Amino acid sequence: MTTTQALLVVFAMALVTYATRAGGIFLVGFVPMSARTESFLRYLAGAVLVALVVPATVRGGPEGYVAVGVAVLARLVLRKALPAIALGILAAALWRASMGAS
Amino acid sequence: MSLAPQEPAPATLTWAGCWRGARAIMAVLPPVFVFGVAFGIAARGAGLEGWLAALMSVVVFAGAAQFAVLDLWTTPVPWLPLLVATFAINARHILLGASLRALCRGLAPWKVYGAMTLLSDLNWAALIAAERKGERDLGYLVGGGLLMWATWVAATVIGAVAGGLTLDDVKTYALDLVLVAFFATTLVGLRRGRVDDLPWLVAGLAAMGAVWFLPPNWHVMVGGLAGGLAGLLRDEIKRPG
Question: Which of A73, B68, B75, B128 shows its CA 20 to 30 Å from the CA of B184?
């Protein structure tokens, strides 16, 4: 790949990526405001997060389940995100260590 | 009709909002940094010049897509696979952006489209969690995004310069878990109650279905759309009259 080609690739990637970043708010501007649209958008954010979390957790295997499970429980009990994340990771690390020892 | 959408207050974009957003994503900067270093190293390994890897991080700022194209860094340039992969991996941004409609209300287009240059999963998740607690400032997205962008670029440069290092698999693995745990705890804050049961279940199942049956990278798009539609359907059925 020549330098010119590489530069073209990088800027083409930047354009495509920005199109996806700006595309959501652009497209939603064409949708008339209605109870239905509001309803859909209200559920969208949570659904996207679920779709991010579930496959990543499954891919993480046992440690993924431990990390996410403990983090979610800790978040419910402590009501604070940062300590909850830390506890989740710590639990996964302990789990990994104990499995490795056996 | 009693269920007509109520008009929320117009959104704002202020420095104070930027600052709040920057503070909110501090905790996830270490993984962003390590992945950035890993990208710099991987890019050099794939034959990119250091400055080119840094430039890509500056103008693209999308980790998963940047890693993916390294496998396609060949001559002749595989234009179509390269751009299709970039689009497919980043298509989820379309849903993220659409969900921010209420937070862009009444803002000048240049502010909205300027802020979207920094739209990413992490600062978006932080923003929608804050929105539930009353945040109305799109600067939250900008502040978080700027901090992540600066970290990502600096880390890429460090990785590209450091060259030969190889990252311990165990460590990158744990960092992956930090991000998942971050999204999962955000989800807890977002939950409104039983109304979310069905949409979230559908979103999870659809996302897993996409992982198993579709080409890579479509699961967020598929799960998000399916969950949103399930919620819409649920409201339609429950609607009185």
Answer: B68
Neighboring chain A residues of B56 at a CB cutoff of 8 Å: 10, 13
Q: Which range marks the domain in which residue A81 is found?
A: 49-101
Q: Are A78 and B189 in contact (CB under 8 A)?
A: no
- Residue A71 placed within a domain: yes
CB-based contact, B87 to chain A, within 8 Å: yes
Q: Is residue A78 part of a domain?
A: yes
Cβ-nearest to A16 among B86, B206, B219: B86
B2 close to A (CB below 8 A) = no
With CB atoms and an 8 Å threshold, state whether B200 touches A18.
no
Domain count, chain A: 1
Please report whether residue A34 resides in a domain.
Answer: no
Report the greatest alpha carbon distance in chain A. Answer: 60
Give, for all 241 residues of chain B, the pLDDT tens digit.
445 455 567 899 999 999 999 999 998 898 899 889 889 988 988 889 999 999 999 999 999 899 989 988 988 889 998 998 899 899 999 999 999 999 999 999 999 999 999 999 999 999 999 998 899 999 999 999 999 999 999 999 999 988 655 655 545 666 778 888 989 998 998 898 999 999 999 999 999 999 999 988 889 999 999 999 999 999 989 876 5
Out of A20, A57, A92, closest to residue B94 by CB: A20
3-state secondary structure of A60: coil
Q: Give the 3-state secondary structure of residue B180.
A: helix
Residues of B with Cβ-Cβ distance to A21 under 8 angstroms: 90, 93, 97, 116-117, 119
Distance from A101 to chain B by nearest Cα, in Å? 16
* Closest approach of A59 to chain B, Cα-based (Å): 10
